[in-house]
């Protein structure tokens, strides 16, 4: 009878490849689901994107968070119906060229900025990182949205309807991250 040896704690080369790949696939799937859960607004729907972007940045770090959103963005650009309101509001580059394009670019950049600023920080630093990331999303979103909405209406259409919800999503992510940190400390 063969002897079974206990797990030694070492990571095999295959696991080093498979684990990030599995996390990435799960992340892109969750990002797609977060886009599909939405409250209709015009011209940009309210989704759970902010929550997903901030959670990935805090929990997985900047590299993995950017990788997840980059693959998600590429899948959408290639025509897969991963974005909010797709396929009804368009697919691929046509969708990205619409009013939400700047927000999508903002999420990609916010993934890295938030993750980078949050690394090794406590709740206050993580909150600052997420608020900075939200500023990046709104900044790029508003710049792009200005091609579709008169400048005097930008804040009313592109920020104010979403701000309270986005701040609530950031609070939920921050509380969840702190809860997870406490659980890890109990090991």
From TrEMBL:
Which keywords does UniProt give here?
A: Cell membrane, Membrane, Transmembrane, Transmembrane helix, Transport
User: What InterPro entries does this protein map onto?
Assistant: BioY
| Cell compartment(s), UniProt | Cell membrane
Transmembrane spans: 20-39, 95-119, 128-149, 155-177
Q: Where is the signal peptide?
A: none
Q: Predominant location of this chain?
A: membrane
Recorded topology in the membrane: Multi-pass membrane protein
* Keyword field contains Transmembrane helix: yes
Q: What's the family?
A: Belongs to the BioY family.
Name the chain's protein: Biotin transporter
Q: What is the protein's species of origin?
A: Haematobacter genomosp. 1
């Amino acid at each position: 009878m063969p002897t079974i040896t206990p797990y030694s704690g070492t990571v095999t080369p295959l696991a080093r490849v498979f684990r990030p790949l599995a996390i990435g696939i799960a992340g892109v799937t969750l990002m797609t689901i977060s886009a599909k859960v939405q409250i209709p607004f015009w011209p940009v729907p309210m989704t759970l994107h902010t929550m997903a972007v901030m959670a990935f940045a805090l929990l997985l770090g900047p590299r993995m968070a950017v990788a997840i959103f980059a693959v998600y963005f590429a899948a959408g650009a290639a025509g897969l119906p991963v974005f909010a309101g797709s396929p009804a509001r368009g697919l691929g580059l046509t969708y990205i060229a619409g009013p939400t394009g700047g927000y999508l670019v903002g999420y990609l950049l916010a993934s890295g900025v938030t993750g980078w600023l949050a690394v090794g920080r406590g709740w206050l630093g993580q909150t600052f990182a997420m608020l900075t990331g939200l500023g990046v999303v709104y900044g790029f979103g508003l710049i792009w949205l200005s091609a579709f909405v008169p400048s005097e209406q930008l804040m009313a259409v592109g920020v104010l309807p979403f701000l309270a919800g986005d701040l609530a999503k950031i609070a939920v992510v921050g509380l969840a991250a702190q809860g997870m940190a406490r659980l890890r400390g109990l090991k």
